[in-house]
Amino acid sequence: MLEAINLTKRFHQGDIDVTAVERFSHRFKAGITAIVGPSGSGKTTLLNLLAGFDTPTEGEVRVQDGGKEVVLSRLDEGSRAGLRLRLMGFVFQQWNLIPTLTALENVAFPMLLAGHKRKERQERAAFLLAQVGLEKRLKHLPHRLSGGEQQRVAIARALALDPPILFADEPTGNLDSASGERVMELIYSQARKGRTIIVVTHNLELARQADRILRVRDGRLLEEVVQ
Ligand SMILES: Nc1ncnc2c1ncn2[C@@H]1O[C@H](COP(=O)(O)OP(=O)(O)OP(=O)(O)O)[C@@H](O)[C@H]1O
Ligand SMILES: [Mg+2]
C-alpha cells in the first residue's frame, strides 16, 4: 500500500549538509503506526516525503493507486498533488485551516478541489463535522474556535475524501491533554475502517495505543516495536 525504500533526504544550508532522513525503509501496514523520536530526528521530513509534499534525495516512495503501484517520488508536483487528494489525508501540528473559510467550507474544500457538487460537499462536510462533535460550529471561522476544535475541523477535512491513508504530524502538540486525547481518539478510530494511519507523536501514552511503533533517530529507523 505505502512503502519507503532506502529513503534519504539531505538539505543543504549554506555550506552545511543535513541528512534529515537516511536510508529509511519500511512497508506501512493498515492500522496505526506511531513514529517517535527526538526533536530534529527527521519525523516531519519523513512524513513530507511519504505524502509527496517533498521529494527524496535518494530512494523512493511507492504507493498503491487503484490497481497499480506508483513511484510517488518520481511523479511531478501536480501528479503528486492529484494522487494525494485521492489517497491521503494530512493533519498538521498547527491545524492549517484556511482563516477566511468557515469550518464547513474548510472541510468541504478538498471536495471542491476534487470537483464534487455543492450539495454533496455541504452534506458530507456537515456530516463529518457532526462526527467530530462540531455540529454547532459549522459557520464559525477558525479564529472563533478553540485549538482542540480547530484540530477536529482539520481531522474532518483530512477525512473529506475518505482517504485510505491518513497522516498526522504531532496532532496533539498544541492541545491540552483532554482535547489532545479526544483528537487522538478520533484519529485512532479511523483505523477501524481499514485505513493506514501514520502518526508522529511525542506522547508515549498515545504511541502505546498504536499497533506498532517506529523509533527513529538521526533520520534512521532504529527499531520497529509491534504491540
Ligand atoms: N527545509 C529544510 N532546510 C534545511 N534543513 C532542514 C529543513 N527541514 C528540516 N531540516 C533539518 O532536518 C532535520 C530534521 O528535521 P525535522 O523537522 O524532520 O525533525 P522532526 O523530527 O520533525 O523534529 P520535531 O520533533 O522537533 O518536529 C533537522 O535537523 C532540521 O534542521
Ligand atoms: Mg516535526
From TrEMBL:
EC category name: hydrolase
Protein's UniProt keywords contain ATP-binding: yes
EC assignment: 3.6.3.-
GO molecular function: ATP binding; ATP hydrolysis activity; transmembrane transporter activity
Keyword annotations from UniProtKB, A to Z: ATP-binding, Hydrolase, Lipoprotein, Nucleotide-binding, Transport
Residues covered by the ABC transporter domain: 2-226
CDD domains xref list: ABC_MJ0796_LolCDE_FtsE
Key word Transferase present: no
Superkingdom of the source species: Bacteria
GO cellular component terms attached to this protein's record: membrane protein complex; plasma membrane
Stored Pfam families: ABC_tran (PF00005)
Protein name in the entry: Lipoprotein-releasing system ATP-binding protein LolD
Native species: Calidithermus roseus
Gene name in the database record: lolD_1
